[in-house]
Design a protein that fits this description.
three-stranded antiparallel β-sheet, mitochondrion, mitochondrion inner membrane, seven-stranded mixed β-sheet, Rossmann fold, ubiquinone biosynthesis, UbiE/COQ5_MeTrFase_CS, single chain
């Protein structure tokens, strides 16, 4: 037995594979076939086949951006819908992180500047305003509209349609209004729709169209602006509150970028276990047009831009209001009477 063990151990002293599927004995130089590598390759191939390959835009597809990623236009709405399905339950927390909580003050100021509602003293037959709040699923802007019209303008007729492409976001809004004094009234309704196509909203039927922190996610922003123009009454107001891609102060802009790209996705991972969605939201801000460019888009849709100057061909200065050193901005447009 003792003499057998050394001989057996000698036979087991194998050199590395001379080919992907063989091993060589150091003593007799015989080659032994091995099934280890083919089995590993088979497992890798099976694993590879199990991983879905994301579709790439074909040459015929029109493309757009999804954050910093280039995707087919036909895919973006679904990708955005998935992001907001993921963050719906933490939407207010998300905006708290992205604005350090200041978004609540911006929204208060945004609604006050629009002064929704019609005081009874200004008309003999008060009818209230009809407001459309786009990408307003969680209802925080709509609730501010109704509170302002009721408490400031003593208007109990103004109503709001809350529209969003995402049903999970609308569900959050329904929860918010379930505990509000407006639940038993007919002053709020919910609409699941794409802002680029609103067939259920009649032309020239809306007094005030608002969108807060939503339009940067639209695939065709110009198309959404055209639809806003269509549904508004002559003299109606388009109003948008949105993050801006750059601050005017270079030093502050650098600090803001470092915070946005370094901290926000990490906090999203910790708070919501969803780094990717928060990474997209930061990138979507970076891809949004500058204040001057977006004001020009509003003008191109047919709106009059209050307070703007046109210094040259195609140029536009002013016509928006920067908030907190330009971290966000308010844009307004008026449909000509």
């Amino acid at each position: 037995m003792a003499s057998f063990v050394p001989r057996a151990s000698k036979r087991l002293r194998l050199a590395g594979p001379s080919s992907p599927s063989s091993w060589v004995c150091n003593d007799c130089r015989r080659t032994f076939a091995s099934s280890i590598r083919p089995r590993q390759q088979q497992q890798q191939q099976q694993h590879h086949h199990q991983q879905p390959t994301p579709p790439h835009p074909s040459q015929d597809d029109k493309t757009t951006h999804f954050g910093f990623e280039t995707v087919s236009e036909s895919l973006k709405a679904g990708r955005v819908r998935d992001v907001f399905s993921s963050v719906a339950a933490n939407y207010d927390t998300m905006n708290d992180l992205m604005s350090l909580g200041i978004h609540r003050l911006w929204k208060d100021y945004f609604v006050r500047s629009l002064n929704p509602g019609i005081p009874p003293s200004t008309t003999s037959s008060p009818r209230g305003q009809k407001i459309l709040d786009i990408a307003g699923g969680t209802g925080d802007i709509a609730l501010r509209h109704l509170d302002h019209s009721t408490t400031i303008n003593n208007d109990h007729k103004t109503s709001v349609i809350i529209s969003d492409i995402n049903p999970e976001m609308l569900a959050e809004g329904m929860k918010r209004f379930a505990s509000s004094p407006y639940k038993p009234t007919n002053r709020v309704s919910f609409l699941e729709a794409n802002a680029e196509d609103l067939p259920t909203i009649e032309s020239n039927s809306i007094d005030l169209y608002t969108v807060a922190f939503g339009i940067r996610n639209f695939t065709h922003k110009q198309k959404a602006l055209a639809e806003a123009f269509r549904v508004l009454k002559p003299g109606g107001v388009f109003a948008c509150l949105e993050f801006t891609p750059n601050l005017s102060n270079p030093l502050l802009n650098a600090i803001y970028k470092r915070w946005s790209f370094g901290a926000i996705p990490l906090i999203g991972q910790v708070v919501a276990a969803d780094r990717d969605s928060y990474q997209y939201l930061v990138e979507s801000i970076e891809k949004f047009p500058s204040q001057a460019e977006f004001a020009g888009m509003i003008r191109d849709a047919g709106f009059l831009i209050p307070g703007h100057n046109s210094p040259g061909e195609g140029g536009l200065e002013g016509g928006w209001e920067d908030l907190t050193m330009g971290v966000a901005a308010i844009h307004k447009g008026i449909k000509p009477a």
